[in-house]
Amino acid sequence: MNRRSSNKAETLRSLIRMLVDASEVIIKQWDAEDQPYLPGPVTGQVPSHELFEARRIVLGACDMCADLVQDPLERLCEISLSFLPARALHIVAEARIFDILVEADPSLGMDIQDISHRTGINAGKLLRVLRCLCSLHIFAEVKPNRFANSSTSQAVVGNDPGGMSYTGSWKLPAILTHSVKTHSYSQRETAFQEAFQSDLTVFEYLQPERAETRRLESQTFSLAMVGLGQLNRASILVDYPFQLLDGTTIVDVGGGVGSMSLELAKKLPSTRFILQDSDHVLQQASTVWSQELPEAVRMGRVQFMSHDFFTAQPVKGAETYLLRYILHAWSDESCVTILKHLKDAMSHRSRILIADHVLHSTVESELLKSAPAPLPANYGVAHMYINMHDLNIMSLMNGMERTPDQWHALAERAGLVIARIWECRSSMCITEMRLSEDYQEGRGSKL
Ligand SMILES: C[S@@+](CC[C@H](N)C(=O)[O-])C[C@H]1O[C@@H](n2cnc3c(N)ncnc32)[C@H](O)[C@@H]1O
Q1: Is the ipTM of this complex over 0.95?
Q2: Where is the O-methyltransferase dimerisation domain (predicted)?
Q3: What are the backbone angles phi and psi of residue 154, rounded to the nearest 5°?
């Protein structure tokens, strides 16, 4: 269904009305919270349902207005060069300019010569990089040639840079037009291998024993998981009723350093966690847990278990098998294998919780909330982060973010059913799967 009227004026008016209404919801919320006009750094707070909805309407409507009023060729040219702001962001992150600017008085900023001196980047060229980002409100040029952090750049002060996604993606066009590789869903035939001139999958590449120089990247990847987790964790934790799982066992399959389980362990004091991954990841996990939640390690509430999820699941009948950021990395075939091993281990009390993005196209879906018209069903650009993840995971691992229909198809092939897709107030969803025979007979214990 085309949600956009052929009458451009009518569409623009209706978007502006929508913007005014949604903005009032946001302003009311700011007033109630006594918030300053500029949003602060990432707080880990979950927005109210009204605020979350209003935000995505504003984002989607602003961009749709831009599409309506901008010259189409200019818009396409801008999008075709939009890798350059990403590159600029990468450059300033590597040079740690966010951290350098913390030392500046926010109203006076730091002179470009000083920033150049600190980073070794030519002042004239760095000036242009920073100005590109100022136009996107990342940094502020407070006086000519003097820069300060903006509320956006402030949010990443003290963070480490990462770079694999960008490097991998530049070979995606070559892979998609290759007569054979375009049809492959193997993790060994991706843009990543092409760009890194390697036969290794991303996970193999990250194993520290492969090469000393990769140890840093392995740690950066774990940090990225923690960072991504921080971005979404608050909403995942409150938008699924995890409190009802206290006193049970949660198996974190491919749990990495266990950043999601760590948060859950703080919230659910009587729950036992079994963190499964490869040995080298579990070593990092053990260090992280000993620092972050030593009492859980001391009391044996967390167990670190070496396990390959393509083999039989050793923990039988656990209440919950959690997979966060796992299935999106794998082809349908591989996902069915992983899910079947879990299915074989499940009892009628068990559930699989898949914390991943769920892709919503611009067309309506029965299982996901649709945006009010004339916005596209997925709120347009407000959904862009998930589309970006989808292409990123294609570049790196031949993986994919899945639509509700695709999740259903996977569940069915593995002998499971989707009990519910829990939409969280972030870019994440929790897809809950149960044994299909239990569900049909009404035996599956429901939350
Ligand atoms: C994207 S990370 C997600 C980590 C964690 N679930 C999280 O959300 O923080 C994927 C994890 O899967 C693990 N992994 C990859 N292949 C695996 C396998 N065959 N068996 C078990 N873990 C695996 C990786 O080591 C990595 O820690």
Answers
A1: yes
A2: 78-156
A3: -55, -30
Residue located nearest, by CA, to atom 6 of ligand 1: 255
Q: How far is Cα 357 from Cα 360, in angstroms, rounded to an integer?
A: 9
| 396 in contact with ligand 1, CB cutoff 6 A | no
How far apart are the CA of 27 and the centre of ligand 1, in A? 41
Q: Residue 341 catalytic? A: no
204 lines ligand 1 (CB under 6 A): no
pLDDT in tens, 327-360: 999 999 999 999 999 999 999 999 999 999 999 9
268 in contact with ligand 1, CB cutoff 6 A: no
Burial of residue 261, with CB atoms counted within 10 A of its CB: 0-12 exposed, 13-18 middle, 19 or more buried: buried
CATH of 222-441, one of 3.90.1150.10, 3.30.565.10, 3.40.50.150, 3.40.1160.10: 3.40.50.150
Q: 58: part of which helix (H) or strand (E)? A: helix 49-69
List the chain domain ranges: 95-155, 164-221, 222-441
What does pTM read for this prediction?
0.87
Q: How far is the centre of ligand 1, averaged over its atoms, from the C-alpha of 253 (Å)?
A: 7
